[in-house]
Automatic annotation (TrEMBL):
Pfam families: Epimerase
InterPro entries on file: Epimerase_deHydtase, NAD(P)-bd_dom_sf, UXS-like
Protein name from the UniProt record: Epimerase
UniProt key word Ribosomal protein: no
Alphabetically ordered keywords of this record: Decarboxylase, Lyase, NAD
Cofactor field: NAD(+)
NAD-dependent epimerase/dehydratase domain mapped to chain residues: 7-233
Annotated source species: Winogradskyella haliclonae
Length: 322
């Protein structure tokens, strides 16, 4: 019998999922990665292909999931995560947050595994409370274009808590705030790859609205550490993991222009509907319960990420998706 702990990671070929696979392999786990590649990329996990502690299953988690071996833990990270992606595939987004989560909770129950689900700062919608503590109920437009993501994630939290309360399932819920780093898809439309791609292609930077809306960006290694600590904590309610260092999108565009030593202009485009005006995590709870706080400064994380995008091929740099 194998004494190693086993973990199923959904969304394994995506940005966060692939970093989680790396972390749990490093920690000596048997990792089963699962993905249907709808927004992910095989390249993100190709280095794990022949690893003896890694197995990959291509599967859509909204369909029944059959795993023969024992499972100790499940991390449910499958879901489109960028506004452009979830506007393009709204039904799949709703399905993976609802049906997909239901399947994974059922699997966790059958295997008596602990499950951690990836929620999001989007459950707070366009927040009226700033910064956002976990106790804030949010301000979401259920029928707006972003509603497909926000409500799927709110449902995900509800059904996860229902399995916890009704079935006694061991659950964890992380509310992830904007996270960035290597392996983001250059064309996924999120602001960091979008601006970095524009700098690298010599294009003007597209700031939506007046650029005075804010975000707080967390480097991926910090995010993974927070998720890791949450999984092994004994806290079953949602917890914010993000970096409280808040900036306007306009200042951020200027930062990326200077990072590339470039001379590009900023051009203004309409602000997408229901785009949150302010976002900053209150991480008091994570500090207290997980003894966690971000360590990587934006300057350092941005440099690593920019160098990653610089390493892409010309074909990848100019690939058009939207
Ligand atoms: P990503 O798009 O890079 O990765 C998501 C992965 O899930 C992709 O590989 C995709 O192919 C896979 N997937 C989607 N639907 C699937 C399905 N039905 N079956 C199997 N696989 C499926 O996105 P990401 O940034 O890595 O986000 C991962 C998770 O973290 C998501 O649940 C997202 O909502 C959450 N999250 C991320 C951020 C962030 O800033 N990166 C912020 C908040 C929440
Ligand atoms: N944004 C922008 N230009 C772009 C892409 C995004 O100004 O080319 C803005 C977007 O309107 C939002 C912020 O950057 O206010 C962050 O967008 P992103 O898609 O990264 O994530 P969100 O936090 O909105 O989910």
């Amino acid at each position: 019998m194998n004494s190693k702990k086993s973990i199923l990671i959904t969304g394994a070929a995506g940005f966060l999922g692939s970093h989680l696979c790396d972390r749990f392999i490093r920690e000596g786990f048997l990792v089963i990665g699962m993905d249907n590649f709808i927004t992910g990329d095989k390249k993100n996990i190709s280095h794990l292909e022949h690893h003896s502690n890694f197995r990959f299953i291509e599967h859509d988690v909204t369909e029944f999931i059959k795993i023969d071996e024992n499972l100790d833990y499940i991390l449910h990270f499958a879901s489109p995560a960028s506004p452009i992606d979830y506007l393009k595939i709204p039904i799949q987004t709703l399905k993976v947050g609802s049906l997909g989560t239901h399947n994974l909770l059922g699997l966790a129950k059958a295997k008596r595994a602990r499950i951690l689900v990836a929620s999001t700062s989007e459950v707070y919608g366009d927040p009226l409370v700033h910064p956002q503590p976990e106790s804030y109920f949010g301000n979401v437009n259920s029928i707006g274009p972003r509603g497909v993501y926000d409500e799927a994630k709110r449902f995900q939290e509800s059904i996860t808590m229902a399995y916890h309360r009704f079935h006694g399932l061991d659950v964890r819920i992380v509310r992830i705030f904007n996270t960035y780093g290597p392996r983001m898809r250059l064309n996924d439309g999120r602001v960091i790859p979008a601006f970095m791609g524009q700098v690298l292609r010599g294009e003007d930077l597209t700031v939506f609205g007046d650029g005075l809306q804010t975000r707080s960006f967390c480097y991926v290694d910090d995010q993974i550490e927070g998720i890791f600590r949450l999984l092994f904590s004994d806290y079953s309610y949602p917890i914010n993991i993000g970096n409280p260092n808040e900036t306007t999108i306009l200042d951020f565009a200027k930062e990326i222009i200077s990072l590339g030593n470039s001379t590009q202009k900023i051009v203004y485009k309409p602000l997408p509907q229901n785009d949150p005006l302010q976002r900053q995590p209150d991480i008091t709870l994570a500090k207290k319960l997980l003894n966690w706080q971000p360590k990587i400064h934006r300057e350092q994380g941005m440099k690593i990420t920019f160098d990653y995008f610089k390493g892409l091929t010309q074909e990848e740099l100019y690939k058009k998706e939207h």
